Amino acid sequence: MNSTPQSETDEVKIVDGIHYHQFDVVIVGAGGAGMRAAIEAGPQAKTAVITKLYPTRSHTGAAQGGMAAALANVEDDNWEWHTFDTVKGGDYLVDQDAAEILAKEAIDAVIDLENMGLPFNRTPEGKIDQRRFGGHTRDHGKAPVRRACYAADRTGHMILQTLFQNCVKLGINFFNEYYVLDLAMTEVDGVKQPSGVVAYELATGTLHVFQAKSIIFATGGFGKIFKTTSNAHTLTGDGVGIIWRKGLPLEDMEFYQFHPTGLAGLGILLTEGARGEGAILRNASGERFMERYAPTIKDLAPRDIVARCMVQEVLDGRGAGPNKDYVYLDCTHLGAEVLETKLPDITEFARTYLGVDPVVEPVPVFPTAHYAMGGIPTNVQAEVLRDNDTVVPGLYAAGECACVSVHGSNRLGTNSLLDINVFGKRAGNAAAAYAKTADFVPLPADPTKEVRELVDMLRNSTGTERLSTIRKELQEEMDRGAQVFRTDESLGNVLKTIHDLRVRYTNIAIQDKGQRYNTDLLEAIELGFLLDLAEVLVFAARNRKESRGGHMRDDYPDRDDEKYMKHTMAYLSGDPHSPDPEDHITLDWKPVVVTNYQPMERKY
Amino acid sequence: MSTPTVEASVPAAAEEHRSFTVTLIIRRFDPEVDDEPRWQDFDVQMYPTDRILDALHQIKWDQDGSLTFRRSCAHGICGSDAMRINGRNRLACKTLIKDLDISKPIYVEAIKGLPLEKDLIVDMEPFFASYRDVQPFLIANSQPGAGKERVQTIADRERFDDTTKCILCAACTSSCPVFWTDGQYFGPAAIVNAHRFIFDSRDEASSVRLDILNDKEGVWRCRTTFNCSEACPRGIQVTKAIAEVKQAIVRGKV
C-alpha cells in the first residue's frame, strides 16, 4: 500500500478491522517542529511520525525569509537584544523566560541545521550570512540589525528538506497520509491521561490506533478559517481542534497575525525579507507611508503595525489600483541581481500570479492571514498544560499549534522557523526522556468509538448542505468581522454566523462514499475543526476589550495593561451546538511571565 | 460601529475581469468501481488568471465531490499537485488558464509511470524509494568545532544552488520516457537530489553516490530528451545536473 512503512519495529495487531500499533513516542505532524522532534526522539526511543501529508508537503516549506539567531556574523548582536525585540514585538504578552530560551538557543539551532547540511547563504568569509527583518533591532530599538539567517527566499523549504533528509538518514518511521482524528484519553486514578491517538488512513479508509507513552502534537496552524490567507489548503487546525474537543484549554486564540505583504487578492506570501533587503511600501501617490507611522525603522516595523498602517492607508482613500484597495511593495530600486539571487521565488510569484515584474514595477500587496500566535498551552519543556500550571503527563506540543508563549500578541518575522527548531528539539527530547521512565497508559475500552461515529455520520449523511458553501461563508465572514480591525459588533456578528453554520454543518452531505482516498470526507472533517477554532478565536477576541499586537479593537484602540496584560485561557465546557458560546466556552486568565522587561509604550 | 475591514481585489487588466466557460476533460479512476480509467467532461466558469487548481476545486466543491487530487500550498512550493495538463507535466497551482489554449478542452490526467490509485492520485512510494536510495543527506565525518558552522565559500555554495530548489513533486521523473518503460531507473529527481550533495563542498561521500548512480539503473539510462528540464516547475536545469553527474563518474572526481 502506498504509504505504509515497511518497518521491522512496527508490529501491527488487527482487531475487528482496526489496526493497533505501539510506539514509545508518537509525533503528529511532519512539518518543521514534528521532524525536528523526530530527529531527537528517534535515536532514543521507538518513534513514529504520523502525518496527513507527505512530510515535504508541510507548510514549513512555504516560509521564505529567514530564521533569527544573534550569531553576530555580519554586525554586532547578542541574544539579549533578540529577547528584548521578541518581548516588545509581542506587545509585552510574551512569557519572558520562554523568549530568553528562544533567543539563547537560537544560535545552536542554526548551527545544528548547518551541521545537518542546510545550505545557508554565505558571507564573503564563508560564514552564514544574515539579513534584516521587521522588529529585529540593535541595542533595544536603535536601528535594524542583520539577524535573520537565510537561504535565498526559500529558507523554510531548505529547513523542511534538511530535516526530512536527516529523518531519512535516521530511518524514522513515517505514516504518510494518515489523518489523526482523536487523542485517546483513559481515566487513571480519576484523571484522564493520554494513551494514544486514532488515525484514519487516507489510502484505504482503515482506522489505526497508535498507543504511545509520549505524544507530540506538531500539527501547525489554521489559517483556513480566513478567506485571504498565505496558508495551505490543508492548514485546518486539526491538532488544535482535537485538544479543544478533549476539554483541554487553548491559549491566546484571539491573536492572529496578518502578514503585511500578501499578493493583493490572492494572499500568497511575499517575504518580509524583501523589505529587509530594502524594498519600500508605497501608497497610491507613491508616498513611503511607513515613515509617518514608524519613523525610526519605517518599513521594518513589526507585522501587526505594518498591516494596520496598510489597511489605514486604504481606508483613508490612499489605496492604489482601480478600486483603491491595495498598496504597493516597491522593489524596483533593488535591481535585477538582488531580486534574482536573494528573492527569486517571490519575484517569480509576482510574475506568475499577478503578471507583474518586480524588477520594473511595484507589486500590489495587502495583508493576508498568516500565523496563529495562540494555540495549545505548553511550558518551556513543551509539556501541554491542562490549566495554568498542571502538566498533562506524556503530552507535548510544539510549533505553530503550540503557545509557549514566545510570540505574545504578535510574532516577529523569522521567529517561527526558530520556534519550530528550538521547541521541536525540546519536545523530542522531553518526550523521549518521559517514555524511558513511564509505562503505557492502557487504551480506553473502545478507543475508536468517537472517530467511527464521526466518519459514519459524515459518510452516511443524506443532508442537503455542501461543505464548500459553509466553508466559504465562514471564511468570508471571518475576513469581514475578525480581521485586522475588529469591533464588538463585528465580532458579535461573526459569532452568530458561526452558530448558524454549525447548525447547517450537521446537515451536510458528502458525495464520495468510498473508502479509498476519500478527500471529500477529509474536507468535511477539516471543516468541523475550522468552525470550532473560529468560534474560540472570535469569542476570546470579543472578550479582550483592548488593542494589543495582532488584536486591534477599533472600539478599544489602546492597550490596557492594568486589565489585560494576561493570557486568555479558553475551555470547552458545554455543548458546542448551544447557540450562545457563553454556554459552552469558559474563559479564564493566565499571568504573563515578566523577568527583565516592564511594559513600555511600543514605538518604532 | 462599522468594521473598517477592506479586502483587496486581484489586480488585472480589464479584459481579464471577464469570466468564460472552460471545458476540462479529466481522466477518472475509482478503484472501488472502475476496471479501467475513463474520461469525463466538466464545464467551469473561469477567469484568465485562475489556475487549473481553481478549476479542479470548482469541480470538486460545486459539481462532483468525489473528484480526487492532492494539493496543499497552492503556489508551487509543496509539490503536491503535479499532473499531466494537455500532455505536459505541470503543477496545477502554477498553470494559469490564460497560458493554455482555451478554444479547446483542457485534458487533465495523473502523472505517468507510477501506479494509479484514484483519479489524479498516484502511489508516490516508488518515487520516494529511489530518492532514499541515493542517500540524500549530508555525510561528513569531520566535525566542525563545537557550536561552529562549517565554512563554505559563496562560490562553493553556488555550485549546487540549482538542485537545492527541488520540491520532490515528481514532475520530472514521471515525464521521463526511460522511467515509463523501466520503473527500476532512479529517475531525474533522485539524481537531482544526489547532485545536490555530490557537489556540496561540505559532503564527503560523493564517491559513494557516484557509485550508486554508476549502476545499470543509474545515470547512464538517461537519453537526454530534456523532458525533465521542461517539466520542472522550479526551473531546475535537470538534464544539465544529470550530465554533471555523468561527467563526475567518468572523471572519477567532482
Automatic annotation (TrEMBL), chain A:
- Species per Swiss-Prot/TrEMBL record: Klugiella xanthotipulae
Domain of life (superkingdom) = Bacteria
Protein's name according to its UniProt entry: Succinate dehydrogenase flavoprotein subunit
* Catalytic class of the enzyme: oxidoreductase
Active-site residues per Swiss-Prot or TrEMBL entry: 303
| Record-stated family | Belongs to the FAD-dependent oxidoreductase 2 family. FRD/SDH subfamily.
Kindly list the biological process annotations in GO that this record carries.
anaerobic respiration; electron transport chain; tricarboxylic acid cycle
Annotated localization: Membrane
What molecular functions are annotated in GO for this chain?
Answer: electron transfer activity; flavin adenine dinucleotide binding; steroid dehydrogenase activity, acting on the CH-CH group of donors; succinate dehydrogenase (quinone) activity
Give a yes or no for keyword rRNA processing in this entry: no
Positions carrying Tele-8alpha-FAD histidine are 59
Q: Which reaction does it catalyse?
A: a quinone + succinate = fumarate + a quinol
From TrEMBL, chain B:
Q: Which residues form a coiled coil?
A: none
Residue span, 4Fe-4S ferredoxin-type domain:
156-178
Q: Which reaction does it catalyse?
A: a menaquinone + succinate = a menaquinol + fumarate
What's a Gene Ontology MF term here?
3 iron, 4 sulfur cluster binding
Q: Which InterPro entries match?
A: 2Fe-2S_ferredoxin-like_sf (IPR036010), 2Fe-2S_ferredoxin-type (IPR001041), 4Fe4S_Fe-S-bd (IPR017896), 4Fe4S_Fe_S_CS (IPR017900), Beta-grasp_dom_sf (IPR012675), Helical_ferredxn (IPR009051), SDH/FRD_Iron-Sulfur (IPR050573), Succ_DH/fum_Rdtase_Fe-S (IPR004489)
Q: What class of enzyme is it?
A: oxidoreductase
- Which keywords label this protein? 2Fe-2S, 3Fe-4S, 4Fe-4S, Iron, Iron-sulfur, Metal-binding, Oxidoreductase, Tricarboxylic acid cycle
Gene3D superfamilies for the chain: 3.10.20.30, Alpha-helical ferredoxin
Q: Which cofactors are named for this entry?
A: [2Fe-2S] cluster; [3Fe-4S] cluster; [4Fe-4S] cluster
Question: Which biological pathway?
Answer: Carbohydrate metabolism; tricarboxylic acid cycle
What Pfam families does its record include? Answer: Fer2_3, Fer4_8
- Cofactor stoichiometry and binding remark: Binds 1 [2Fe-2S] cluster.
- Residue ranges occupied by any 2Fe-2S ferredoxin-type domain in the UniProt entry: 20-114
Q: What is its EC number?
A: 1.3.5.1
Gene Ontology biological process terms in this record: respiratory electron transport chain; tricarboxylic acid cycle
Q: Which family does it belong to?
A: Belongs to the succinate dehydrogenase/fumarate reductase iron-sulfur protein family.
Q: What is this protein called?
A: Fumarate reductase iron-sulfur subunit
